[in-house]
Amino acid sequence: NRVFRLEDYRPSPFRIPESHLTFELEPDATVVRAKLLFERADDTRADAPLVLDGDELELIEARLDGALLGADAFTAAPDRFELKAPPASGRFTLELVTRIVPSRNTTLMGLYRSGGNYCTQCEAEGFRRITYYLDRPDVLSVYTVRIEAKKSEAPLLLSNGNPVENGDLGGGRHYAVWHDPFPKPSYLFALVAGDLGVVRDRFTTMSGRPVELGIYVEHGKENRAGYAMDALRRSMRWDEEVFGREYDLDVFNIVAVSDFNMGAMENKGLNIFNDKYVLADEETATDTDFANIEAIIAHEYFHNWTGNRITCRDWFQLCLKEGLTVYRDHEFSADQRSRAVERIADVRTLRAHQFPEDQGPLAHPVRPRRYREINNFYTATVYEKGSEVVRMIRTILGPDDFRLGMDLYFARHDGDAATIEDFITVFEEVSGRDLSQFALWYHQAGTPSIAVTSNHDPKRGELVVEIEQSVPPTPGETRKRLMHIPLAFGLVGTDGRDVTYRSAEGATVENGVIHLRKRRHVIRFSGLNERPALSLNRGFSAPVTLTLEQKREDQLFLARNDSDPFSRWQAFTKLVSDALIDGSRRSRGQKPLEWPADLLQLAGDIATDGKLEAAFRALTLSLPSEADIAREIGSNIDPDTVHAARNGLVFAIAQANGERLAPVYDSLADMGPFSPDAASAGRRALRNTLLDYLATLPGGKERAAAHFTSASNMTDRAAGLSVLAHRHSGTEQAEQALEAFEARFGDNPLAMDKWFTIQAMVPGASTVDRVRALTAHPAYSGNNPNRVRALVGSFASGNQTGFHRPDGAGYRLLADVVIDLQQKNPQLAARLATALRSWRSVEPQRQAKAREALLHIAAVENLSTDVRDIVERTLA
Ligand code: DPP
Ligand code: ZN
């Protein structure tokens, strides 16, 4: 199948200034009448035919300027419509009537049914499953949408833009008309029809425009939409205050649906959400759920400017809207919560998801140059690394020029389908800087690696820092160019404060940032009589892997004293990682585990340091995951030894500090009414993290059981259950807790997802069988993406010892699920299959089994493009 290449981009030969759509909704036969006004774009051949995209469409009728078209005037296949000789004037109206079957649409792309309602998902190429169209993001059109449906089945009729008209059609049917005055690409089209409850609010924009807000959920779930509404109002205000962006329609609606491939979708004026990212209350949602809701509500809302008002020229530019919008939602969360804690959490996510992608067979640049299936490029690289690149632009320019650049971007490109070059240019113009070398961050794949040594000369009062950069080869890119890497740093004196130096030579050093541009820099900091500790890549200013030759005493010192909390976390985590890598090696060699006493002591000191934010302590004490450690080890991994090492360190920290930890745990006991705010969530996080340690000590099982039983919110309850199930698997307490949870939440699918995930994550060889058995549980559904991800997805990506069972049973389970899903829901199946992407880094026996599983999938006949693309790239 076909490969799409960036260099093949050509502007569309036609524009569609107006699109008038009428939907006659029926679950088994929906008729779509599209009346499209076409204009030939002036710079093309006047005799070129008009070719429209389709996907599984059935054409009923075609009219040109009102006249029925004869069969010889066009060709229509399920995936393509061609008007052979468009009128010479170049301006004409084409009316196309198609029939589609929402009830049989299991791909969750186009128009489909979820929970008895109609909904749509059109990004990236789902609109062509609704009608024939120029389904590409650089064709912008003003949409008027008329929806007709049975009143009893669909009292609610929504689309993009503002409501203009509604009425009765007789025969129990009614209609509504929506008009969106902002030209938009087809991927932002949305329609929802059904019977839903609503929560309403109002927002007055900074210029005084009133906006009606609505969040639509299944009846009876309205009281779980309050937090999402609050997050929406805060997002709207924040975008005004921080980016000067005002909302632009009379209404803003959000609809929560239970069958959704992504987190949510930013359709103009009508966001459609996975209900997991709307519904929350203390009884059913964890603090993590609340934080995710806040972030995703903000993300989709922010797309109104970065994505909708300014969209992408083509799908290669996906990061133009996604990386930038992730950057904006990260900033929002940092402002709403604790900046340091958010940064640590974001970096953990980046390293857990983007680094393995960048270091494996699926590596691609933030702006890819080729794809076979665009659905497979909604990746951590495009999103998370894309956000890091924007963040680096701000680091290089400083906040004022960055804001000027953003203002210019909005002013210059409003209404455009833009490119990464457009984006970079505005920052070059406002700052007068040359960002051409920096732009490699968009064009070149792979995680740059930085090696650093430093040497202090007391006689000269000089600190000499040698820094070398390299970018490892990635698939299709063997030779790499040198990057412009902004490394934030500090030279930390004995009191923990940064010391000042007289001058720095050997690289551009400005505002606490070293700008690496060459392969090797030797930087001389002068005026330093005492040797400072080097704190490097502060705040993770550049997404690189850093090898810093540093004295252990400096690492311990920075972990205790660096004035930058992120750096303290980083220094501690580095010490822990090194210990865990060493522990894995010992475990592999069947040697006893040994841990440095100063590290155990440090962990206890952080846990009990009341001057540190609780959330920070919790994040620091939740040690790198087994997958993190495996990634650091890099090759020939035996996940069982990694597991043994990590468990061993948790136990050693608990043993060394247990007497200090228990009082802290007790002092954090839940008091007063629940609040999802960051400080309260931080206290719960710390208490729950401490429980995980204390659970390994005598009496720990009973403590965890009491924690679970007395929990008054889902955060504590799920944490208690998880500690019981993971640290005391198979015990009566664990089994009873699982049963109690099921009895209480059996009819709440989102809560049951936690139950599935906790069981899927039970370490050890027998979990494969448990996961297989759970696929037959009545609360499970192999058709619902949330269920599949909760059970099979978390098993494959989060359970190192279970998934990598030496006999390959974990890989086979994943392959079976992927094969079962690959036609029904190709997008979801392909996403699941990426869990095998790091197969070459495990030890040879497991590698062989993983390869078998991949080949087993590859051998399936009629493999969907999505899955074939992932499997073939993974095997290549
Ligand atoms: N819905 C996805 C997102 O907002 C794709 N646009 O990131
Ligand atoms: Zn997005």
UniProtKB/TrEMBL annotation:
Highest taxon in the source lineage: Bacteria
Lineage, broadest ranks: Bacteria, Pseudomonadati, Pseudomonadota, Alphaproteobacteria, Hyphomicrobiales
Domain Peptidase M1 membrane alanine aminopeptidase: 227-438
Domain Peptidase M1 alanyl aminopeptidase Ig-like fold: 446-547
EC number, UniProt record: 3.4.11.2
The species this protein was found in: Mesorhizobium liriopis
Keywords linked to the UniProt accession: Aminopeptidase, Hydrolase, Metal-binding, Metalloprotease, Protease, Zinc
EC primary class: hydrolase
Name assigned to this protein: Aminopeptidase N
Family of this protein: Belongs to the peptidase M1 family.
The reaction(s) this protein catalyses: Release of an N-terminal amino acid, Xaa-|-Yaa- from a peptide, amide or arylamide. Xaa is preferably Ala, but may be most amino acids including Pro (slow action). When a terminal hydrophobic residue is followed by a prolyl residue, the two may be released as an intact Xaa-Pro dipeptide
Aminopeptidase N-like N-terminal domain sequence ranges: 89-188
Keyword set includes Lipid metabolism: no
Gene behind the chain: pepN
Cofactor(s) this protein requires: Zn(2+)
Molecular function GO terms recorded: alanyl aminopeptidase activity
Signal sequence range: none
Domain Peptidase M1 alanyl aminopeptidase C-terminal, chain residue ranges per copy: 553-876
Pfam family, one: Peptidase_M1_N
